[in-house]
Amino acid sequence: MCLGIPGQVTELLDDGSQHAWADVSGARRRVNVALLEDEDLKVGDWVLIHVGFALAKLDEQEAAETLQLLEGMAKAYTDELEAMASSSTSAPGQS
Amino acid sequence: MRYVDEFRDRDKAVALAVRIAELCTPGRHYKIMEICGGHTHTIYKHGLEHHLPPTVELVHGPGCPVCVIPMGRVDDAISIARTPGVTMACFGDMLRVPGSQGSFLDAKASGADVRVVYSPLDALQLAVDEPGRQVVFMAIGFETTAPSTALTLLRAKALGVPNFSVFCNHVTIIPPLRAILDAADVELDGFIGPGHVSAVIGCRPYEPIAREYAKPVAVAGFEPLDVLQAVYLVVRQLAEGRAEVENQYSRVVTWDGNPRAVEVIAATMEPRPHFEWRGLGSIPWSALSLRPEFATFDAEKRFDVPGVRVADPRACQCGEVLRGRIRPWECRVFGTACTPEKPIGTCMVSSEGACAAYYNFGRVNLKRSPAKART
Amino acid sequence: MTGPFVTGGPGPQGPEKGRKKRPFGHTVINLAHGSGGKATHSLVESVFLDAFANPILAPLNDGAVVSVAGRPVAFTTDSFVVSPIFFPGGCLGDLAVNGTVNDLAACGAQPLALSAGFVIEEGFAVADLERVVGAMAAAANAAGVPIVTGDTKVVERGKGDGCYVNTSGIGLVDERAVSISGAAARPGDRVIVSGPIGDHGTAVMLARGTLGITADIVSDTAALNGLVNVLLEAAGAAVHVLRDATRGGVATVLNEVAAASRVAVVLEETALPVRPEVVGVCELLGLDPLYVACEGRMVVVVAPEAVEAALGAMRAHPLGTGSVIIGEVVPEPAGLVLQNTGFGGARVVDMLVGDPLPRIC
């Protein structure tokens, strides 16, 4: 139920079949995009592929925000580590 | 791979792990159920638990659509496969699932025409290409996969393909969740929600669960950072005394899901009054069957299926694993009578079954391994 | 929060003296028995090993070493079954020659002579047979080995899937390689693979056409005797194990080595060489490249003091330019293969029961 992979739309077929070609790291497959007919799909968009069907269009903005949030947490953590390290070196006598 | 590799970044994991540990109340043990078998797979494949404090336990749930199929239903499918003239098309996941008289692979070895397909549309194409064969598609999966079967049925109807039918075993996610919570024999603190089911149904269906049972739910993607961030969200909710639904997988999941996908399911399938779940017993309105308008494509009508209820082997504790009552290694036959090579139950066969995941990926206490520290 | 510690994998063990015969438990053969994984091992141990029992067979290496007038001669056989017969990067003929040359190379032997046996289905096109045979001739030429004897049988239509080929080969074991064996890995050894993994299996899977996926992937089929020669020149007896990773992939051969040598192998996920297209196909289908077949990749287990020399020599050879260290040998948990994941955790890399199958879950 869960194996869904992001792929990039490389070609929209206008033969009425509601299919597109999608690329996953160089592997290409015809994907049914009928479930995204309200999404105004374009070449270059990313979709989630499951058993040969596109279930959702990837929201690149949301992806960027999620990553930013995680990066922020990572940075805050390394900053803390650095602060702890420098405070212990700058305070002689303290362990 | 874009949208995949970034969510496997170890450095971000370390920071998340620290925050999770900080949010944990000392002395409290947390049990968070990850409902979806795909999450089980991710957790073990990437060694995610390495980043969790020992007080946070991820409990596996019933979200493995292969694991929850009872033996009797597998027998029904195999009996269809053995019918002369039938080509049974199924996903690779089904091939080695044990029925009471063997698996699809065993049936194939004895002469049944069983073929693995990647997509239900490939099964339909088989029927078009081989008009002399009765092609039956074994449909499994939660709401993630049901839209694909639905679109295939719509296409079969539009083309008027006479030799194609579907043996429908689609199940839905909310009823078993309620069944587990109502059974109350596992103390759960919160849930990691199934990201791809939610891509279809959205986040709204979990709101009553969070509200009525006061359990936080974080809908998660399938890369290890997604799952870890979802754990963080659940633990944070618990620390803040909230019980809400949060969407970690916002790059794919919207609050309302995919309305078109929900539409096509409703156009082709309807809920069954009852369906037997391995280990969970009969759950009302928890599975789908084909609507009357698609009766000609219903394998259950086209073929005589035994429909016998087969009890699980006495030794099998799959049900308890699926409910989260026990961990795989606590099953009395784990690794001895029940192995991937000779599985007794579905949890050991399915690629996302908790037992298979644990056996194949995690059965060694790796902290005690003398392997050199990674550079 | 993982479960109890398991000492030693429940996977196939190296053969032990006085081991009781394990009941096979199947009344018919199924496809999993041909995959190279646990089911195959179970079949070999339960049916073949017991019936043929002898000390030369017992180690179950890629080839057997028999003593001929006091010299160690490697002797191996392989049968080739592939669908489709022609695929990007080669055909049945290439596999038939390269596979046996590589099994001999894995014994540290240069190929002296090959045999070729054909089982051909009635109705098979002569033009296709000529293509296969032409490929065999070219591959044998490239490997520097003559095909000196053979046999042909024809079976009725419907009983032969086109064409099956068996090749057997003999070669003199290089004196620097006499100790090479699956049981010779030692803690501290490094594990090298000679190039990107999973190319062949993926190419053939896509060539069947049933998955609807296309990608620029070609089979990696190649004769590796030249590569092994330069390796032995550079590292000599420091090379402990040679295995060509075929069906079942790198994971399967390393599990066999871990069991036979009673050691553990620890892999680094970030070090595994996999082409992006192979990654794409595997992600789409839910496959792990570690289990996907290669046909031109050598897995080398070498003592740490010689690893730089070994790597240098392999990388200088045209068939080894992609050689990388992918892991090391440690004492415990004996019999298991582990992987340090890129995410910072660790996982077991067990042997599969049967073929890796596309999954939806």
Question: Can you describe this structure?
Answer:
Chain A contains 1 helix and 5 strands. Chain A has one helix at 60-89, and strands at 5-12, 19-24, 27-32, 46-50, 53-57. Chain A has a 5-stranded antiparallel beta sheet with strand order 3-2-1-4-5, with no helix packed on it. Chain A starts with a strand and ends in a 6-residue tail after the last helix. Chain A has 95 residues and is α+β, with helices and mostly antiparallel strands. By secondary structure, chain B is α/β, with parallel strands linked by helices. Chain B folds into 2 domains: 5-66 and 182-247, Rossmann fold, CATH 3.40.50; 71-172 and 257-302, HypD, alpha/beta domain 2 (Rossmann fold, 3-Layer(aba) Sandwich), CATH 3.40.50.11740. Chain B contains 14 helices and 11 strands. Chain B has helices at residues 10-23, 37-45, 71-81, 104-109, 120-129, 146-159, 174-183, 195-201, 207-213, 224-239, 259-268, 299-302, 318-323, 354-362, and strands at residues 30-36, 56-63, 86-90, 113-116, 134-141, 164-170, 190-194, 217-220, 245-247, 269-277, 281-290. By secondary structure, chain C is an alpha+beta fold. Chain C folds into 2 domains: 62-173, 60s Ribosomal Protein L30, Chain: A (2-Layer Sandwich), CATH 3.30.1330.10; 190-348, Phosphoribosyl-aminoimidazole Synthetase, Chain A, domain 2 (Alpha-Beta Complex). Chain C contains 8 helices and 15 strands. The chains are: A alpha+beta (95), B alpha/beta (375), C alpha+beta (361). Chains in contact: A-B, A-C, B-C. At the A-B interface, strand 1, strand 4, strand 5 and helix 1 of A face helix 1, helix 2, helix 5, helix 6 and helix 8 of B. Strand 3 of chain A pairs antiparallel with strand 9 of chain C, so a sheet runs across the interface.
